[in-house]
Write a structure and sequence with these properties.
It contains 14 helices and 10 strands. It is α/β, with parallel strands linked by helices. The strands form 2 sheets. The chain has a 6-stranded parallel beta sheet. A 4-stranded antiparallel beta sheet has the order 2-3-1-4. The chain is elongated.
Length: about 425
């Protein structure tokens, strides 16, 4: 039995290839059941995100051909169109790969936590589809334990490395709590969406989203119980904002010194935290000169991000050591499975001997034998029966100079 991983990711394949091999969440179960129709595949799970599609399989051999052909048939793509982008791992390397993926060590953003939730979704889909199998199911559980240990024992996820999250963390440092604050977000692109999501998760009091296209602002604001305005309305709402974060593609500044100064006066000099994530700048540099305004640019945040990335890289080195240990633990479990059949057979043999001796003892009691004599005879006979074969085998091993077997017997039976 082989544990096999096959996949593509952001490092090996362009988005045009990745999107063709993606699996929507609502099709995962049916796809997994179809994959298991292949006789060589005994267990399977599929991890599909915007950055990767990976198959985790339990197979009879270590050949990737079955998975590749099924994928080509399912997606109606010629294998040659995607096989140059594939990577594969078997057994210990497959185990290590799953652990690294779950810990965020193989992610575009080192240590990002979302991938663990996506791994759990992949596991749940396979569990509900009934396609996991014993080995793969155990591997997923061990993967989650390894990821938890890495998160607990290292600082890999403690330092933000995105401008959106760093901006929100900075806001938390300036304001004791975000619950009573109002955030004005200017723009409606990916960065502003991430910022809004992080602020919402931090229980921001209120979100206002301003954008050149009102409909885009409204669509984004509605996701976070926010309020949408057009760019032309910013002057009317700027004084309400405790936090201003801007990221647009404008070639000219959107907020000048005069407009911000007027807002500060309306706020009676209550502090305003501003972050300009745009290049060219959305907020005039002169705004920094105003009292009660804390203005940060993307360069200011990048310095923090670089420091945090160094911290994550050091934590990643610790994480790799933890993963080495966890891989060995799982391999030990797999090796122990080879002894299970021997233990089962030995137990069955002992139970048959016990039942045979017990039946004789019960017959003796029915025929009038005393309890004491019957128990003594049972103990003596059972002991002789149980040790006869091992004793004979050890004696033969000694006679044949099989000192390794004699030493193994001493270890197995824990003889002093």
């Amino acid at each position: 039995m082989t544990l096999l991983s096959v996949g593509i990711n952001y490092n090996t394949a362009p988005v045009a290839v990745r999107e063709r091999l993606a699996f929507p969440a609502n099709t995962l179960k049916s796809s997994l059941r179809a994959l298991l129709d292949n006789q060589e595949i005994k267990g399977a799970a599929i991890l599909s995100t915007c950055n990767r599609t990976e198959f985790y399989c339990q197979t009879e051999g270590n050949d990737t051909a079955a998975v590749i052909q099924w994928l080509a048939d399912d997606k109606k793509i010629q294998p040659a169109a995607f096989t140059p982008y594939l990577y594969s791992h078997t057994d210990s390397q497959s185990i290590r790969h799953m652990f690294r993926v779950a810990c965020g060590l193989d992610s575009m953003i080192l240590g990002e936590p979302q991938i663990l939730g996506q791994m759990k979704t992949a596991y749940q889909a396979a569990y509900e589809a009934g396609t996991l199998g014993k080995h793969l199911g155990k591997l997923f559980h061990h993967t989650f334990s390894a990821a938890k240990k890495v998160r607990t024992d290292t600082a890999i996820g403690s330092s933000p490395v995105s401008v959106a999250f760093t901006a929100v963390q900075l806001a938390q440092q300036i304001f004791d709590s975000l619950n009573d604050q109002t955030a004005l977000l200017i723009g409606a692109g990916e960065t502003i969406e991430l910022t809004a999501r992080h602020l919402h998760q931090k229980n921001i009091g209120r979100i206002i989203i301003a954008n050149r296209t009102y409909d885009k602002a409204h669509a984004l604001a509605s996701q976070f119980n926010g309020y949408a305005i057009a760019l032309s309305e910013i002057s009317s709402h700027l004084a309400e904002a405790d936090i201003v974060i801007s990221s647009t593609a404008s070639q000219l500044p959107i907020l000048g010194k005069g407009r911000v100064e007027s807002a500060i006066k309306k706020r009676k000099h209550k502090p305003m935290f501003m972050v300009d994530l745009a290049v060219p700048r959305d907020i005039e540099a002169e705004v920094e000169q105003l009292q009660d305004v804390y203005l940060y640019t993307i360069d200011d945040l990048q310095h923090t991000i670089n420091i945090n990335m160094d911290s994550r890289r050091k934590a990643a080195e610790q994480a790799e050591e933890i993963i080495d240990t966890q891989v060995e633990y799982f391999l030990s479990w797999m090796r122990s499975l080879g002894a299970q059949s021997v233990i089962k057979d030995y137990r069955q043999q002992a139970e048959l001997t016990r039942d045979e001796m017990l039946a004789k003892a019960l017959t003796s009691l029915k025929n009038g034998g005393t309890a004491e004599d019957t128990l003594q005879r049972l103990a003596y006979s059972l002991t002789n029966k149980l040790i006869h074969t091992p004793s004979s085998q050890i004696r033969d091993a000694g006679a044949n100079d099989r000192h390794d077997l004699v030493a193994a017997a001493r270890e197995i039976f824990k003889l002093k």
